[in-house]
Write a structure and sequence with these properties.
Strand order of the largest sheet: 1-2
Number of helices: 5
Order of helices and strands: HHHHHEE
Strand content: under 5%
Radius of gyration: 18 Å
CATH superfamily: Ferritin, core subunit, four-helix bundle
Length: about 170
């Protein structure tokens, strides 16, 4: 089982990861011209804020010597609720995005990849089942973010991919 100090360090680092994501996504929302891109960054920021609140509550419990008294099941995030609906819809062309927006999306994708890797390491490094479960849920939520950003990149760049699947045309 992880020591109190190890838990505090892991959770504090996770809070910083979420805070950085929140700040970055709000900045990108302000800079993005496309409404769909702006809305996506606001949704991502909202999810990161909820992750941060969950982790702060966990940190408070750990530092006060209390049990990590969090729900066994963490509800689906906004993005996890939206993604299945988006997957069922036909492709929507977002329009031409500037290089800055594409750079923001690629940076966001890298941030999500790093968060996934961090939470996966957290999951693998602690023995506390509740903390492991929370880390696993955070991995799943960040994977939802990753998928949403990739979808936006594919749409903006008109790569012919939609959720990682090659589109095809019946035209000759």
């Amino acid at each position: 089982m992880a020591t109190i100090q190890e838990l505090v360090e892991l959770i504090t680092k996770a809070i910083e990861v979420e805070k950085n994501g929140l700040d970055t996504y709000l900045k990108y929302a302000r800079l993005t011209r496309e409404v769909s891109g702006k809305d996506m960054f606001i949704l991502l920021a909202s999810d990161e804020y909820e992750h941060m609140r969950l982790l702060e509550k966990m940190l408070e419990n750990v530092t006060k010597g209390r049990e990590i008294n969090l729900p066994e099941k963490i509800d689906l995030s906004i993005i996890e609720k939206v993604m299945p609906k988006l997957r069922k819809k036909a492709r929507v062309t977002v329009g031409q995005a500037g290089a800055d927006e594409l750079t923001a999306l690629k940076t966001a994708l890298d941030m999500e990849r790093n968060a996934i890797e961090y939470y996966q390491k957290l999951h693998n490094s602690v023995k506390d089942d509740r903390l492991r479960n929370i880390a696993q849920r955070l991995v799943e939520m960040e994977e939802g973010h990753y998928d949403m950003i990739q979808m936006q990149i594919d749409s903006v760049t008109n790569t012919g991919f939609w959720f990682g699947m090659k589109e095809f045309s019946l035209e000759m």
